[in-house]
């Protein structure tokens, strides 16, 4: 077993799409998806851009204000996630700061409980 501390991953600052206070640290890759840890500083923004593939953002600490193609802003917190479809323009902001995990790629994200493996119950 290995333990990963997402906050301690080597990171790079991202300023594309007018992003500010945004860092990313990759920690997983498959043929179909990649996993990254992201941080937003207080007042930080991941600027509006299209999702490359289906994208799942899971908030691990702090909170985020997220919106998709419809421009309706929703606040999500610890244990909540946003899902954007391939090509969907979206933006993420955080007034207080945030640590999150993003999984992006060929993902099958159904309704809650729909994808439960019988071996997991």
From TrEMBL:
Domain Cupin type-2 as annotated: residue spans: 38-96
Membrane-traversing stretches: none
Name of the protein this chain belongs to: Cupin type-2 domain-containing protein
Native source organism of the sequence: Nocardioides currus
InterPro entries recorded: Cupin_2, RmlC-like_jellyroll, RmlC_Cupin_sf
Superkingdom: Bacteria
